[in-house]
Amino acid sequence: AYTNGVAQLIYVVLVCSPLLVYMILAKWIRAHNFSTIPEMLGSFTNNNKTIRVIAAIMTIIVPFGWITSQITAFGSIYSGLTGLDYNVLCIIFAAVSLLFLMPAGLKTVAWTDFIFACFMLSMMFICMLYANNMRGDIALNPELISFSASVDRTGWPTIILWIFAILPGGVTNQLYFQRICAIKKEKEVNRSLVLSFIVCLIGVGWAVYMGVVLNAVNPDITDGAVTGWFVCQLPVPMLALFAALIFAAMMSTLDSCAQSVVVNITRDIIPMITGKGMDPKKELLVSRCLSVAIMVIALLMCLKFTDTLGWLTATYAYSA
């Protein structure tokens, strides 16, 4: 948004829209008690093992892309904030994420998501006020707030890629799918999906607003360093809270995605290959080992490729 303006809203509408698509499917998914997308697809083919395994591999791609994007984003932002080496920060973040995920898997993710979200919403409001105060009477860049001009800056090839990658990639995003399975009362599923859609739009609306306002305050920030620059302008107490806000958002996303990938491997790949399920104790041990392995693989890839948005768009495209 800092570079291209309000056209970035297109990206987020595309990311959020599958939540509304799932409202149509929710009752049918609950009736069949599906817990993963490969399990659902397998039901169309008499639970064919090959279909289950291929579908699981394809389903893993988007959450894995989110894992890598969070690690690269953390390294990039906090290297500018602290002066520490990008590689070192990525390693630290991956290690801390594992500590959050290990104790109780999905239950840990659910509660940390909720607590982090409450904190994030309050901090977003405070940061908007602070950024607007920094701007004062400075006019916003008209090219950034004009939708047509912003689309031209973003580029139609990029927008077309978003449409053909993110919509199908989002509909097959297991993180959305699991929201249907995890809710206790069926009548609350659609309400939850609508609220998730609204909160996502609020989050990105905030990001676009901040990007456009900070461009007016300082239009010469190096590409990708806007958040780090803004944080460094804050008073120390605010800086600490905003740094915690960034950490909370990334940690929440990364742990949810890691959990999703592990579920696919333990429920859709291993049982299909071995021909038998695992007892709960063994499944917990395997899940923890897989969490470590996934984080190590993602970390090694992030140390080589450091483009956060590139990870997201590319993995959506491959998944689609």
Sheet bearing the most strands, described?
A: none
Order of helices and strands: HHHHHHHHHHHHHH
Tell me, what's the shape?
Answer: globular
**Span of the ends, CA to CA:** 25 Å
Taking pLDDT < 50 over at least 5 consecutive residues as the criterion, the unreliable ranges are none
User: How large a portion of the residues is in β-strands, by DSSP E?
Assistant: under 5%
The radius of gyration over CA amounts to 20 Å
> Helical segment tally?
14
**Structural class computed from helices and strand pairing:** mainly alpha
Helix content: over 70%
Number of beta-strand segments: 0
* Quaternary status: single chain
Provide mean pLDDT, rounded.
85
Please give a structural write-up.
The protein is mainly alpha-helical. It is 82% helix and 0% strand. It is built from 14 helices and no strands. The mean pLDDT is 85.
SSE layout:
Blueprint: H1 8-32, H2 37-43, H3 49-82, H4 86-101, H5 106-135, H6 142-145, H7 147-154, H8 156-171, H9 174-182, H10 189-217, H11 226-233, H12 236-274, H13 280-304, H14 308-319
Short recap of the structure:
This protein has 320 residues and is mainly alpha-helical.
